Amino acid sequence: MSSVSIRNVHKTYPGGTDRATDDVSLDIADGEFLVLLGPSGCGKTTLLRMLAGLELPDGGSIAIGGRDVTYLPAHRRNLSMVFQSYAVFPHRSVRDNIAFGLTTRRAGRAEIDRQVAWAAELLQLTPYLDRKPAQLSGGQRQRVAVARAIVVDADVLLMDEPLSNLDALLRMEFRTELKKIVQDLGVTTVYVTHDQGEALSLGDRVAVMRSGRIVQLGDPLAVYDTPSEKFVGGFLGSPPMNFLAATLTPDGDRIDVAGTDLPAPAALRGSAGRDVLLGVRAENIEIAGTGGDAPAGTLPARLEVREPTGSAVLLTVSAGDRELKVSAPASFRADPGDVVHLRLPPHTLRLYDAATHQLMENRPS
Ligand code: ATP
């Protein structure tokens, strides 16, 4: 186990115009599970590969356990890696695949047998130890890759989208298992994914990346609750955060959102007339009623689509020219075309600058 310290790391691939990773600094604590989350091409894998020693940065430094490893070859970093493609050796048995890292480290026979038996049991591979990978399902092959990574006593475990080749159900089951295994091992883990659900459920902290940079780093729920910019709110969460154009009233005391007044945060009262974006999560919007007169302080909207999810019902509503997602209790009854009155509880609203899309102020007062 070890801490990781990344300082001002940047990298541009030969022939590339933009930096794949741009001035990234990140400290990962000993035993922490850190998720790198972001859309395709944002630089997650490049950062992970520089940590692994498979790519060299153009500048900056990387330390593992206090030791500068920036230019150290991969095999001298004492890391384990699990890739998206199972990357198991097809001609070797499951047993030999799991033992691979131990064999190359010249571990003794008894040690290898003990470790392989332990990992196989943990990953439910004991009955398959003598099979070849071709005789396994995709999920089992990925278990072999994980078993191979955890048998060596690595300082840091690196995983690059390890679940993305599995079908939805298997993915969810394996995610829980993986979390338990890593939790029990207590090994420092860096996990790359573009799946926001995985990031929220697995990470002690999540680093959200965009265009080679970390744009927000924090506890998953804090990042979900208060995205630092519109991009993060739109990327994290299913459905994504809703955004509504709004204006601070000329006296600066209120926010006008599609003709409905809400109190403005004290810190913004000097910026009268300013255009803002209100961010609000689907589950935080309350339905104050349907049809008839609008209760005071509510936003009228038209129900467009109703999608039951089992535990709730996801509503798509239109308010002016905006579409919003609202999560209502499963028992909620209304039909497409009905008018629903939405209440936006002030403490759940996040305000973003209309031009820069950056968080302005956490909560209206
Ligand atoms: P994905 O989720 O699709 O794997 P990512 O966030 O991991 O994406 P990277 O693979 O790190 O992103 O890629 C970052 C940028 O660097 C992209 O613009 C990509 O096209 C570019 N890139 C990645 N690998 C190479 C390479 N070997 N040569 C040139 N450009 C590369």
Automatic annotation (TrEMBL):
GO terms for molecular function: ATP binding. InterPro entries: AAA+_ATPase, ABC_transporter-like_ATP-bd, ABC_transporter-like_CS, ABC_transpr_MalK-like, ABC_transpr_MalK/UgpC-like, Mo/tungstate-bd_C_term_dom, NA-bd_OB-fold, OB_MalK-like. Pfam families: ABC_tran, OB_MalK. Transmembrane segments: none annotated. The keyword ATP-binding applies. CDD domains: ABC_MalK_N. Residues 4-236 form the ABC transporter domain. It comes from the Bacteria. PROSITE patterns: ABC_TRANSPORTER_1, ABC_TRANSPORTER_2. This is ABC transporter ATP-binding protein. It comes from Pseudonocardia kongjuensis.
